[in-house]
Amino acid sequence: MLPAEDGNIEYKLKLVNPSQYRFEHLVTQMKWRLQEGRGEAVYQIGVEDNGLLVGLAEEEMRASLKTLHRMAEKVGADITVLREREVDYDSDMPRKITEVLVRKVPDNQQFLDLRVAVLGNVDSGKSTLLGVLTQGELDNGRGRARLNLFRHLHEIQSGRTSSISFEILGFNSKGEVVNYSDSRTAEEICESSSKMITFIDLAGHHKYLHTTIFGLTSYCPDCALLLVSANTGIAGTTREHLGLALALKVPFFVVVSKVDLCAKTTVERTVRQLERVLKQPGCHKVPMLVISEDDAVTAAQQFAQSPNVTPIFTLSSVSGESLDLLKVFLNILPPLTNSKEQEELMQQLTEFQVDEIYTVPEVGTVVGGTLSSGICREGDQLVVGPTDDGCFLELRVCSIQRNRSACRVLRAGQAATLALGDFDRALLRKGMVMVSPEMNPTICSVFEAEIVLLFHATTFRRGFQVTVHVGNVRQTAVVEKIHAKDKLRTGEKAVVRFRFLKHPEYLKVGAKLLFREGVTKGIGHVTDVQAIAAGEAQANVGF
Prior knowledge:
Elements: E1 9-12, H1 20-36, E2 40-45, H2 58-75, E3 78-87, E4 95-103, E5 112-120, H3 126-135, H4 153-158, E6 165-171, E7 177-178, H5 186-192, E8 195-201, H6 209-218, E9 223-229, H7 238-247, E10 252-257, H8 264-279, E11 286-290, H9 293-305, E12 309-314, H10 323-332, H11 339-346, E13 351-360, E14 364-373, E15 375-377, E16 381-385, E17 393-396, E18 399-402, E19 405-407, E20 409-411, E21 415-419, E22 433-435, E23 443-455, E24 460-461, E25 465-470, E26 473-482, E27 487-488, E28 493-500, E29 512-517, E30 520-532, H12 537-540
Parallel strand pairs: 1-2, 5-8, 5-9, 9-10, 10-12, 11-12
Antiparallel strand pairs: 2-4, 3-4, 6-7, 6-8, 13-14, 13-22, 14-21, 15-20, 16-17, 16-22, 18-19, 18-21, 23-28, 23-30, 24-27, 25-26, 25-29, 26-28, 29-30
Helix pairs in contact: 1-2, 9-10
């Protein structure tokens, strides 16, 4: 595949003793590639600009790597050799290609950040895998590794996740894992990592499906990890979670766990079943089984370039088999949004989605969520709403924390917790937004959306009530009108007018929408919002 002019992969034939002018040019080029990859770039040495694999003799390769090292030092980056390959070229001398990862934490942030949602059926081993990755010790086969991840007593007793928990895994600039082993605290992990993976551990049980949908829609993960147990295959909520990831266009990779429990033939059967499902017309994915470190490097690069590539890992949290391949993949995986998109978002007005609300002793009210646009600093004056009567209230951001360590400035796309001092917690709820006062936010009780009905037992008609998810908004709405039709059946498309039952919400045209009620499910996007003034809000809600 040819390298794009933009992107973070650079092909170089050789870098032997460049002149001063050429060296400066190469350094500028490296800065550009690092900016494109938001702090990460991959150099392939021994490859022509057109992608032809030529390879270099050992002496030239050593000189090229030395030059690359000097370039990286000049921009303040670190380099790690990912892999070396021998090429068959018309010569007697062995010739090699070397792939090098260059990583530099941007000056304006502490670390590179990647959010990964963890999906999969109940009992497939999601919390256990995260426990093993983040604690650095293997499981005992009876769930010891996951105990640190649970947030409620009933989760520890049943071994089932019912809430959303966040776990962090760091990589330093040399690509080594930084986690809670050696009894590090979260702050120490943040300080010694140049790249942080935040895992969003979602619930697998059908009873908690609404929590899983909320995690996928409001926390804006970069990608998802779908966990499938080798001994059960695609069972229970796995198909549903797969469908959610596809509907919300979240790129995902698959991990087949518990391979130590079953025979090799069973693992192969599960992988074949997965490949068959991923190739179906609805998915259109290209499965890629990862069995070596070389595969893991290729998988990370292909996954970032094409959302259709779906890497499949087979591993065990008990024996630790192939666990290193997943770590290699996560270490190399570049940010999936490009720098231009983030720059554009940062130039817009501040908008922070409220997903969690806590009261912390001696700090006061704290909200957790994601900054969807703009920049947020300590001391900023924002407005939060809409309240039940459609008003927005003034507040001040006292302090900001990212991944449990203090942070001065928050940028678009980053998740954080904001301390609001003595602001009354009772006035806040999930689904609110905190925005710049000059934004003059519009709120609505009635909105229209173009939807596709994925599944419904009978017909979907006027008066039907569903739970609507749009970003961090989750509320019951009633169907007021289906344009140009009386009713909808499974698989049909239409523009539908919904009305929220309880209170108005802040919605944007174009936002992805997901709704459910029992077995009924549908997806779509908001096409029109009927804006209302704050005073009229109460009269417009309900029937």
